Amino acid sequence: MNRHTAELLEKHFDTAFAAPGGIKKLRELILTLAMQGRLVPQDPDDPPASELLKEIEAEKQRLVKEDKIKKPNLLPPVTEQEKPYTLPQEWEWVRFGEIAQHNSGKTLDCGRNTGLPRRYITTSNVYWGKFQLNNVREMLIREDELDKCSARKGDLLICEGGEAGRAAVWELDEEICFQNHLHRARFYEDVNPYFAYRFFEKINASGEINNYRKGVGISNMSSKVLASIVFPLPPKSEHHRIVAKIDELMARCDELEKLRTAQQDKRLTIHAAAIKQLLNIAEPDRHQHAQAFLAEHFDELYTIKENVAELRKTILQLAVIGKLVPQNPNDQPASELLKEIEAEKQRLVQEGKIKKLKSLPPIAEQEKPYALPRGWEWVRFDGLINQEFPIGYGVLVPGPDVEDGMPFVRIEDLDIKAPKAQPGKQISESIAQKFERTRLIGGEILMGVVGSIGKLGIAPKEWAGAYIARAVCRIVPTYMVSKKYILWILQSGFMQRNFHGNTRILAQPTLNIGLIRNSLTPLPPLAEQECIVSKINQLILQCDSLEHQIDAATKKRAELLNALLQPQSQATSKEQPVNDMPCVTAEIVNLAAYRAAIGCYVVEKLANAPYFGRTAATKVMYLAQAHVGLELNLRPEREAAGPLDTWIYDFERQGQSQGWFEVDEKTLTTGRKKTEYRCLSALSEPVAKAEALMSSGQKAEFDRLIYPLADKKTEEVEIIATLFAVWNDFLIDGIQPTDEQIISDMRKNWHKRKARFSPAGLGRWLDWLRGEKIIPRGLPPRTVQQPKLKLD
Questions:
Q1: What is the full DSSP assignment across 406-471?
Q2: Omega into 781 within 30° of 0, i.e. cis?
Q3: What is the C-alpha separation between 283 and 782, in angstroms, rounded?
Q4: Are 486 and 480 in contact (CB under 8 A)?
Q5: Residue 643: cis peptide before it, omega within 30 degrees of 0
Q6: Which band of pLDDT confidence, cut at 50, 70 and 90, is reported for residue 586?
Q7: How far apart are CA 41 and CA 455, in angstroms?
Q8: How far apart, in whole angstroms, are the C-alpha atoms of residue 362 and residue 478?
Q9: What is the end-to-end Cα distance of the chain in Å, rounded?
C-alpha cells in the first residue's frame, strides 16, 4: 500500500463514521484493496506466486502418488477476458480448484446411513467468519467415510446451498463432520485459508458472488462452479501480511461500530429521559427543566429519526394531558359542552331518529388515570359519538371477490394520509345488504379492531356506498366536537394503549366494540380542541421537515463517502501500474451491443424460471428501462401482451447466431405457443459485459426487480408490466393518477384483451407493486398505440 492509499484510508475512517452504511462500505474497500494487491506493499525479495504454484503442483503429485487424493481434474487456464483487473507483477490469476482440494460432505439419509453417531455441521451452523455450534446434531457415519467428510483446523468450509458462498475457517483443534450442503476446502502448501475466506467475503460484499450462484430464491454453488472461480494469488509471504493488515483494519471498523452504536444509544437514552420529564404532570419543575434541556440540545438530539418519531408521540401525549396549548379561562368548559351533547341526544330520541340510549356507567375517581386541566372533563368515548351512526363493525363473512360487486373496505385499505381511490376488494350485493348499518357515506373515521388494532383511516367521499369488514369499525363523532381532535387523540399513545390493553387473543388480537365505547377520553373545551388541532398540525409539519433534513444530510454524507471510496475501489486498468490508482472511465459501446448485453443478462438470470419466455423477457426489458433507468432506447407498443418492442425478435436471432442461447418454440395443450431459452456457454461473455456496463446501484436495483418476477406466471408478469406502464405514462404526462384511473386506462385504452382482467384483481397487483417498491418515476419510454404484432 503506497503512502497515498494509506492517507486516504485514514480519512475514510473519519468519513465512514458519519455516513450511513459508511463502515460497511469501508470494510468492502479494505477487502477490495487487499484483493487488488494494494493494501500492503510488495516485497521484492518474496518469491513470486508462480513459484508457489510450482510447489502446489509438486504437492499434488506427491499426494496422488501416496494415494491420498485422486488425480485432480485439469482446469482451463484463466483467459484475459476473465481477469477483472491487473494484479501486481508477482501475483497470478488462478482458479480456486488449483489451490485447494475440495469436496462436499455426507448426505443425511436415516434409512441408509450406517456407522457410529457423530456430530456434524451443516449450512445452518456456518456464518460469515464464524460457526454457531449450539445446535449441532448427530448422524451415523462409518470410519472409512471420515476422511472425506471431516474438517480439521485450518479448513475453509463454504456453503453449497442457502446463501451459497458463505464461508468460515474451522479453528478448533477437534475435527468435525459436515453434511453434503457444505464444501470443505483444504489448501495446498502455504495458501492462507484466512486470505481465501477474505476473498469470499469480498466478492459477497461487491455482489460478484452472484456470478457463481445458480438458482432462483434458494441459490447453490456446485463443486464444479467452486473450482472454476477466478482467484487472485499473491506470493506466499504476502498472503500472511495481507491477512494481518485486514485483521488490523477490520478491528478498527469494529471499534468504530461500537463507538457509533454507543453514541446513538446515548442520544436515545438521554432523549427518552427528557421526554419522560416533559410529560411529568405531577412535578411542573421537571417539565420546565425538560423543555429547557430539549431546546438547548435540539440540534444534537434530533439528528436521528428514532428521536423524531418519539417527538411525534410526545406531541400527541402533551395534547391529551392538556400541556400542548395554554388554557383560556374564558372558554366555555367541557362540562357545558357535554350538557349540549346530551340535549342533542334527547332531541334525536324524541324525534324518533334514534332509540333511547342506555346510560353509560359513571366515571369513578379511581378510574381517572391523571388530573386534567381546569375546564376539561373525562368522558366515555361513546358519549362523543353521533348516535345516528353508532360505533359498529361490518361484514362477518364477505365471500369471494366478485367483479362489479359492492366495494369492500378491509384493514389493509386504511390510510389516513393517502387512501386509495377505491377499496381493493368487491363482494356480492346479497351479502353486503345484510350489513346496511355500516354502509359508508364518506368522511367516517375507520379503525382496525382485529389484527392491526388501532390502525386508522378516513373514508374518502369516493368510498360512499362501500361496506366495511368485520376487522374494521366505523367512528362518527358528534358534530358538536372537533372530528380532527378525535382523530388526533385516537392516534395518541394514551388511546392506543387503552385499545391494545383491552384486546382478546382469538385467532388474531381482537378489540371488543363495547371496550371502545367505554374507553376514557379527555375532553377539552371546544375552543381549545381547535387550538390543539392547529398546534398539532403545525408541530407535525415541523417533524416532517426534521425528517427531510435528516434524509438530506444522510444522503449528502453518503454521497461524500461514495465520492471518496469510488476511485479507490475501482479495478485498475490493464494498461496502468497497480499503485497509480487511476480513475476508470466507462467503456463506450454502441446501443445495439449494450441492449443485447442487457438482454443476455435477463435470459441468464431467468432462463430456468418456470414460466419465463418471450413475453416475460419483453416485460423485464421494458422495466429495465422505465424502472431501473437503463438507456435501452425501447419503443414499447400497447399490444395484446404489451408493452412490447419488436426488438425482441432481432435479439433472438442474434442470440442463436452468436451461440448465446437456443430458442425453443413449444405448442401447449391450450393451442398457444410458448418460447423457451436454453443458455449456452458463450452467454457468459455478454452477461459479463452487461455487469460491467451497469453501475453497482443499477445492478442491485435490476436484481431486486428480477427476483420477485422469477416465480410469476406469464399473465401475471403481463399485468405487472402493463399496470406499471399505464401508471408511468400518466406521470410522464404530468398526471398523478388514482388507482381507479390506472385500472380504467389499462382496461379501456390498451388492447381489448386487457379488459379480461378484473378491476379488483388489478387493484391487488397495484398493491403488490407498492409492496415490492416497484413504483414508476415517470422515466421514458412512453408506450405508443400501434397494435401491429401478436406476441404469444
A1: EEEE-GGG--SSS--SS-SEEE-HHHHGGGGGGB--S--EEEE-BSSTT-EEE--GGGTT-EEBTT
A2: yes
A3: 63
A4: no
A5: yes
A6: very low
A7: 60
A8: 20
A9: 57
Which of 11, 8, 7 minimizes the C-alpha distance to 568?
8
Alpha helices in 570-676 (DSSP H): 591-606, 614-623, 647-657
Separation between Cα atoms, residue 140 and residue 133, nearest integer Å: 19
pTM: 0.56
Residue 394's identity, in one-letter code, is G
Euclidean distance between CA atoms 248 and 387, whole angstroms: 71
Q: Phi and psi dihedrals of 72, rounded to 5?
A: -65, 150
Backbone angles phi, psi at 103, to 5 degrees: -160, 160
Question: Shortest CA distance to 772 belongs to which of 737, 721, 714, 697?
Answer: 721
Nearest to 750 by CA among 727, 780, 774: 727
Measured over the CA atoms of residue 39, residue 40, residue 45 and residue 50, the dihedral's sign is: negative
Is residue 790 very low, low, confident or very high in pLDDT (cuts 50, 70, 90)? very low
Q: How far apart are CA 752 and CA 529, in angstroms?
A: 54
- CA gap 548, 564 in Å, rounded: 24
Angle 773-774-778 from CA coordinates, rounded to 5°: 120
- Angle, in degrees to the nearest 10, between helices 305-320 and 236-278: 10
- Strands, DSSP E only, in 442-573? 445-448, 456-458, 467-468, 472-475, 503-505, 509-511, 520-523
Is 5 a residue whose pLDDT tops 60? Answer: no
- Confidence bin at 11 (pLDDT 50/70/90): low
Provide long-range contacts, Cβ within 8 A and 24+ apart, for 434-440: 434/395, 435/394, 435/395, 435/467, 437/392, 438/392, 438/393, 438/394, 438/395, 438/467, 438/468, 438/474, 439/465, 439/466, 439/467, 440/409, 440/464, 440/465, 440/466, 440/467, 440/468, 440/474
The pLDDT of 761-768, averaged and rounded, is 93
How far is it, in rounded angstroms, from Cα 425 to Cα 403?
Answer: 9
Q: Which of 16-25, 122-131, 514-523 has the lowest mean pLDDT?
A: 16-25
Q: Which residues contact 465 (CB under 8 A, 6 or more apart)?
A: 406, 407, 439, 440
Q: Give the integer Cα–Cα distance in Å for 380 and 387.
A: 14
DSSP secondary-structure letter at 214? B
Taking alpha carbons only, the member of 469, 473, 475, 424 closest to residue 448 is 473
Query: Which residue's entry shows cell 457423530?
Result: 118
Sort 771 into a burial class: Cβ within 10 Å, 0-12 / 13-18 / 19+: exposed
